[in-house]
Specification:
Length: 75
């Protein structure tokens, strides 16, 4: 995976955790958020980027953890 794609994936996870989750109003919206976020987390867990710096890896790990936390508490 190219570094730009790796960073975009991190940004997508952060957006799901910090913006999109809090914008969900109905249970249908939350179900959609959960489905997309689960897929993104799965992609991120399997992402391999040889050019990723330590900061990139740390940011990805934090984004994955935040999404997993929200997935665990969402009904």
């Amino acid at each position: 995976m190219k570094i730009a794609q790796y960073r975009r994936l991190t940004e997508s996870l952060n957006r799901k955790a910090h913006v999109d989750y809090h914008a969900c109003v109905t249970s249908q919206e939350l179900d959609g958020w959960r489905m997309i976020t689960t897929r993104l987390v799965d992609d991120a867990i399997h992402a391999i980027c040889p050019r990723a710096k330590l900061d990139d890896v740390k940011e990805m790990s934090k984004a994955i953890a935040k999404c997993n936390d929200l997935l665990a508490i969402s009904p």
